[in-house]
């Protein structure tokens, strides 16, 4: 993309982030399902308009727009896994309802900045050496297998424990930390002494969880496109809508019991696709009698959307069956 497009995009994203901050500052009530639904639709609509703009005005309109849509859906779906961790963190620290929106906002903005660094580093690595495809692909397949073998509770517990054992213990040692919350304030006064509230710890935990999850999601989108502009914008739009999605489906996550299975299938697919592309780049089109197909962006998009649909449908059917069995007992 031309430099002017990069500049305009960054300015636009910063404007949306600033607008979000104004909305949070003026909100004097807990986020309701109605509020969350409206804002989720708003951010999905923003991503949709951005995709339409790419289809209409990007140099390689069809390819660029398709890569963004596939990348956005992948990042958004993988980001849903973060919500399990957010729920655990919020519950563990008993974060006041009114403060949860602010905590998520700051944690996600911090992770957006850190992800941008990761994305630029990933793009540079790919440009420097094609063998990075093999590394990313193998890592995604490994992650898919690990995710498929873990239950949602085990995944959430392992992440929350890592936050508590590493970052949180360190912060408790170096920060003047109060024992009580003070509404949505990050800093308070206790006996005349300025201290930070536990919200700082929670924000650090959420930000760190987002960065750690980026180790899975960023290689995944690099399996769909190597355009740093598409990778960055798809991540940004996915993360901007994540906070509202937390409030919208926080109570529904228990019903999507096969979410880990669906995400592991998507990661494995993208990992294999990345390895196949690396083999093509090395002029290897066949392995024995097996021809390595070219997996286009439309195929990737269809596979991702289809997997998410089947995962959600299977989860809803299983949940309905379990409820019927319990009612009969």
What does this entry look like structurally?
By secondary structure, the protein is mainly alpha-helical. 78% of the residues lie in helices and 4% in strands. The protein contains 11 helices and 4 strands; from the N terminus they run H-H-H-H-H-H-E-E-H-H-H-H-E-E-H. A hairpin with a 2-residue loop joins strand 3 (286-287) and strand 4. Helix 1 (3-26) runs parallel beside helix 8 (228-240) and helix 3 (61-92) packs across helix 10. It is globular and about 75 Å long. It starts with a helix and ends with a helix.
Summarize the structure.
The chain is built from eleven helices and four strands, in the order ααααααββααααββα. By secondary structure, the protein is mainly α. The strands form two sheets. The chain has a two-stranded antiparallel ribbon.
Features of the shown structure:
two-stranded antiparallel sheet, mainly alpha, 78% helix, 329 residues
Name the beta content range.
under 5%
Let me know the number of strands: 4
| Sheet with the most strands: spatial strand order | 1-2
Low-confidence stretches: 155-165
Termini Cα gap: 61 Å
Q: Return the average pLDDT rounded to an integer.
A: 77
- What sequence of helices (H) and strands (E) makes up the elements? HHHHHHEEHHHHEEH
